[in-house]
Amino acid sequence: MATNKKKLSLKDKYQYLTRDMAWEPSYQSKKDIFPQEDFEGIKITDWDKWEDPFRLTMDAYWKYQAEKEKKLYAIFDAFAQNNGHQNISDARYVNALKLFLTGVSPLEYGAFQGYSRVGRQFSGAGARTACQMQAIDELRHVQTQIHAMSHYNKHFNGLHDFAHMHDRVWFLSVPKSFFDDARSAGPFEFLTAISFSFEYVLTNLLFVPFMSGAAYNGDMATVTFGFSAQSDEARHMTLGLEVIKFMLEQHEDNVPIIQHWIDKWFWRGYRLLSLVSMMMDYMLPNKVMSWKDAWEVYYEQNGGALFKDLERYGIRPPKYQDEANKGKEHISHQLWATFYQYSQATNFHTWIPSEEEMNWLSEQYPDTFDQYYRPRFEHWQALQEKGERFYNNTLPQLCQVCQVPALFTEPDDPTKLSHRSLEHEGERYHFCSDGCCDIFKYEPEKYIQAWLPVHQIYQGNCEGADVETVVTKYYHIGAGQDNFEYLGSPDHKRWQAIKGQKPDESQAAKPKNAA
Length: 515
Fold this sequence. Notes:
It is a single chain. By secondary structure, the chain is mainly alpha-helical. 58% of the residues lie in helices and 3% in strands. The strands form 2 sheets. The chain has a two-stranded antiparallel ribbon with strand order 1-2. A hairpin with a 2-residue loop joins strand 1 and strand 2. Helix 5 (105-119) runs antiparallel to helix 6 and helix 9 packs parallel to helix 11. The longest helix has 31 residues, at 220-250.
C-alpha cells in the first residue's frame, strides 16, 4: 500500500496534535462539561479565533525544554563544585535570595495549580492546550529555582523550610494572598490576573532587573535559571496579550468586565511588587538600576505603549496608575524601613545602608530620599552605634486586601500615612489605599474571609501570644540565626571567615531591646 511520506509542516502538526484532538460531545451538553465558562459574564462566540502564537506541540516542547535543562543543570553543578557562593559580591546579597525563595518560588507552584485548573474549564481546544503548556512551564520554574538556591542552603541560614514559611509568615501572606485571590476567581479572571496583568504588564519588573542584579553580584546559578525561565516568560507574555485581545474581540459586552479586572489586578500586582522594589534598592550590594528607573522603563514606557494599543478596544490604563507612578519615589524606602524595624520576625537579616549606598539612593531619588528617608536611617544608625539597635515590638495593622502593613503614605503627602476604612455588616475593615478599598467594595464576601497573620496571632492560632514564640514555633525561623541585624550575625561571621577577615565581636546580632 502506498504511503504518504511527506513531512508535516509545524502548523499542520500543531493542528493535528491540539485542535483536532478535541471532539463534539454526544451525550453531555457542553454547559455541563464546562460549567465555569459562563458565570463570569464573558461571551465567547468562536473559540477557533483563539491564536496560540507559539504553536508548540508536546513533542516539540519536551525537546526544546530538555536542551535548556541540560545546560542549566551543568551550570548548577559547576557552581556548586567550585564553591560559587564564595564569589558573590557580599553575603548580604543572600538575603535577597531568601526573600525570593520564600516569596516568589511558591508562586510558580501556585501558577502551575491555577493553569491546571482553569485549562479544564475552557471548551476551546487552543485555550486548553495553552494552559497545559504554561502549567508545565510553571512547575519546571519552581523546581529549577529550588535547585539553583539549594547550594546556598548549605552555607547560609534562613533558606530552610521555605514552603512552610510561605504558608505562615506574616509578610509572605502578601504574595500568597495574591495568588489565592487569583486561583479562587473564575477562569477568565485568572487569565486576566496572571497571564495579562502579572505576566505581560508587570513580570519584567520582577525578572529582568533582579536577574541582572544576580549577575552583577556574581550569582551565576540564579542568573542562569532566571534567563532560562525568561525565555518561557516571553512566551507567557505573548500569550497574555493574545488572551486579552481574544476576549475583547469576541463581544463588546466583555469590555467593562475586563476593564474592571485590569484595574483590580494592576493594583494588586503593584502592591505585590513593592517587595521587589526593596530588594532592588536595598538588598543588592552591587546595584544595577533603581526601582524608580525600572518602573519608568518597564511600566511607564512599555505599559504606556501597551495601553495605547488597547485603546481601540475601549480599554483605558488602570484606574490607579497615577498613584503607582507617584509611589515609585517612596515605596522601596518605606518597605525597607519597615523590615528593618521588624527584622526579629523575618527569615532574613536587615541593616542600615552604608554611607556610599545612601549617597547612591540620594542620586537616584533626588526629590525624596534626603528629605524624607535619610534622616530616619541616620537616626537608627546613631542608636545602633550606641548599642540600641531599634526593633519595633508592636504588631502592625494589615490591609484587608493586599495584606501589606499600613506603611505607605498618601500619594500627594509623604508625611501622612495612607489609611482607609469602611464598615461591612457591622464590622470595620482597614485598607492601605483607595485601590485596595475599591477591590473590597466590589467583592466584600471574598475579602472578609482573608487570613490576616496579625489577627491570627491575636486570636491565639499561631502557637503562642508573643513574637518570639510565634517566630520559632509557628514560623520555624531560628531566632538569632535567621533573623535580626546582619552585622554580627552567623551569616556575617561566616562570610568574614570565607574572606579571611577578623570578626568584630562588638556587633551583636540580638540587641537588648529586641523581643
